[in-house]
Q: What sequence folds into this?
């Protein structure tokens, strides 16, 4: 599942763009977009593991078209959450994965509502921002 990161078209997730961070005023948004890319990758990996026999880093990397170091990091995070565990044949999903999916669904609903609220506020503020005070 090769997807374009949310914040930077054409740039791989977890890799910074050239130039100083935050020069265009979107540094905070880029950080959030990078975290969403990481979450999406973790979900892709967990989804792949849920529907198959145990898989190791190399097979997951090939199946998902991801660099090995990114797969390794995601497996580390998923293991730390307790939703996967290592085995002699590769990573396997634990019973805690059901809780993870339910929690993820609820969290995404909450984030979606917050994102919608922020979009509305940004649209309102954008119209007022042109003629305002200068300085602090």
A:
């Amino acid at each position: 599942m090769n997807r374009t990161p949310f914040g930077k078209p054409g740039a791989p997730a977890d890799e910074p763009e050239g130039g100083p961070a935050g020069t265009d005023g979107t540094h905070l948004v880029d950080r959030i977009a990078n975290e969403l890319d990481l979450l999406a990758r973790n979900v892709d990996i967990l989804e792949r593991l849920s529907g198959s026999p145990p898989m190791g880093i190399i097979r997951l990397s090939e199946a998902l078209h991801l660099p090995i170091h990114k797969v390794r990091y995601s497996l580390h995070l998923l293991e730390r959450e307790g939703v996967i565990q290592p085995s002699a044949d590769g990573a396997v999903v634990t019973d805690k994965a059901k809780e993870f999916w339910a929690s993820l669904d609820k969290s995404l609903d909450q984030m979606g509502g917050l994102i919608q609220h922020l979009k509305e506020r940004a649209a309102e503020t954008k119209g007022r921002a042109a003629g305002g005070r200068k300085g602090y």
Remarks:
- The longest strand covers residues 84-87.
- The helical segments are 27-50, 57-64, 68-81, 97-129.
